Amino acid sequence: MDGAFALSDGRALGYAEWGADDGAPVFGFHGTSLSRLAHLGEEAPRAAGARLILVDRPGYGLSDLHPGRTLLDWPRDIAELADALGLDRFAVFGMSGGGPHAASCAYALPDRVSALGLVSAPAPVWDRPELRFSAPPHRRPMIELAERDPDFVARQLLEDCQAELERMAAGSRNGGKGDGPAADQAILADPEVRARFEAATRETVARGPDGYAHDLFLLYVAPWGFAPEEIDVPTQIWHGDEDAAVSPRIAQFFAETIPASRLHMLPGAGHLLLWSHAEEILRSLSS
Fold first, then answer.
1. Can you spell out the DSSP letters for 24-35?
2. Are strands 50-55 and 90-95 parallel, antiparallel or unpaired?
3. Is the pTM of this model over 0.90?
4. Sheet of 113-119, strands arranged across
5. In a 3-state reduction of DSSP, which class is residue 14?
6. Are 39 and 193 in contact (CB under 8 A)?
7. In angstroms, what CA-CA distances link 53 with 18, 23, 156, 161, 218?
8. What is the C-alpha to C-alpha distance for residues 100 and 106, in angstroms, rounded to an integer?
9. Main-chain dihedrals φ then ψ at residue 142, nearest 5 degrees
10. What is the pLDDT of residues 94-135, one digit of tens each?
11. What's 275's DSSP letter?
């Protein structure tokens, strides 16, 4: 199922479902620049006994922009969608840039979130300067500049994202996710997976840079509004030891700071391990 839900403030929230209708509900949030179209297929959710609901963040896919949103605005959207779907309890996971959004749900909705999954997830680099080494090298000067002029950085991110989307439209068909170790290359060599990435990329290009740029702003130059130490939900941390986008040291940081957490460090895996280990990840959240 693929559609949009009308939130109480009038915005549309896009989502799509896979798996068994009576499966354990799991909300999933994709990495930055991807939408629900880069899905995991039907087989993995069914095998894991999950009802998988992938949700487009504001400005992606079928979801309207939410100007000025913070990370802690996201749990309110998910709570509304869960209410509409008749779901009282559910798990959440986020891949890459979706990780902080999943963490925000676990923090803000501890009575409703049964489990949290952090998959190739980045750190709260704005809140923890000692973790800024993990930000992409070309983003690190922006973090320091944002301390003096966040509005300028927001404008610069918008320009950067517009240029990136133009490059995607001109040539790159996978949202820039094709770089990285052999494990990531092998995942994208699967024609079905590559087609999903291409569809998500086309949708993001069509939507324009606003949602993309604000997503990056939240990841690099905005406070999370909570600390990982304050997450009181059982947490599964999945990371590849060859992740070229987010340092494996960040997974170790989460394992050391989130109280009820378990680290799965996968030898030889890269940033895109969600697509190669979907059933295993979903099963860890659905059991």
1. EEEEEEPPTT--
2. unpaired
3. yes
4. 2-6, 12-19, 50-55, 24-29, 90-95, 113-119, 235-240, 261-266
5. strand
6. no
7. 7, 11, 33, 27, 23
8. 10
9. -65, -35
10. 999 999 999 999 999 999 999 999 999 999 999 999 999 999
11. H
